[in-house]
Design brief:
Order of helices and strands: HEEHEEHEEEEEEEEHH
Strand order of the largest sheet: 1-2-3-4
Strand content: 25-35%
Shape: elongated
Distance between the termini: 74 Å
Helix content: 25-40%
Largest sheet: 4 strands, antiparallel
Number of helices: 5
Number of strands: 12
Length: 260
């Protein structure tokens, strides 16, 4: 009798599980990979749930889902989701999906590169990082603009942050515009992204010295600057010099914080 009850319970659970399973339509297959090192090949895909009616489709039209499926496109896990206030074209949102071992645990992690349509800079590609842990993927909270970081050979991440994004004066000669960046180094440790600037003290020592030299050069330019009859041009050029000096002083201050 006990065995019959156990079998009945298992049967009911299987029915419940089957009833909650929803069919999917695969939109794009980005990778075919044995990502869990178990000898089985999986697909990394974007997908949508098979809609039963127009209303259900409308509710899902602003969402893009990334999941792991079997090779015959049975959904195994939803690993990432993008929700927008407007309709999303899945073919344009995700630019690429990369596989790499980010945290040196011999498992492939996932980097999803996508366009954030609702941001102030919709033309920028954003990278989101998902760590492979216990056969699940956990997204870390930090995201980076793809064009501003470099993944080094040791899987350390070098990231450049512009010190001035807005408010630069217009200078007709574009060659006079110099962008100054602060640099941070990061390392993936377990499920976290950790700042490791202390490991790059030699870089920051050189960075500080170069910035000091640039600042001294700018101060000299201001000292010998000769005014012209174009008052506006004079004002804009001097503003540019002072903006750069402020940025370079920021670099020197932050570098000192790393070094001392």
């Amino acid at each position: 009798i006990v065995l019959m009850r156990i079998l009945l319970l298992l049967f009911l659970c299987s029915i419940l599980t089957h009833s909650e399973t929803r069919e999917i339509n695969v939109l794009n297959i980005f990778e075919e990979t044995p990502i869990f090192n178990d000898g089985v090949t999986y697909n990394i895909v974007t997908y949508e749930y098979a809609s039963q009616n127009v209303t259900e489709y409308a509710k899902d039209s602003g969402t893009i889902k990334v999941g792991i499926t079997s090779t015959d496109n049975v959904l195994l896990d939803l690993i990432w989701e993008y929700q927008s206030i407007s309709d999303v074209d899945s073919t344009n949102l995700i630019q690429s999906i990369d596989l790499m071992d980010l945290n040196h645990d011999q498992l492939k992690d996932i980097v999803i590169n996508y366009t954030d349509l609702d941001s102030d800079f919709p033309d920028q590609v954003i990278s989101s990082f998902l760590i492979n842990h216990n056969n699940k993927f956990q997204e870390i909270s930090e995201t980076f603009v793809k064009t501003r970081y470099e993944m080094l050979d040791n899987a350390h991440l070098k990231y450049e942050t512009p010190l001035t994004m807005f408010g630069r004066p217009y200078i007709e000669d574009e060659s006079q515009k110099n962008s100054n960046y602060w640099v941070d180094y990061y390392e993936f440790q377990g499920l976290k992204l950790v700042n490791i600037n202390q490991k790059y003290r030699a870089f920051f020592e050189t960075y500080r010295q170069d910035s000091s030299q640039k600042m001294n050069d700018l101060l000299h330019r201001i000292k010998v600057y000769k005014m012209t009859d174009e008052i506006t041009i004079n004002q804009l050029q001097l503003e540019e010099y002072f903006n750069q000096i402020t940025e370079l002083k920021t670099i020197i201050y932050r570098a000192n914080k790393v070094l001392y």
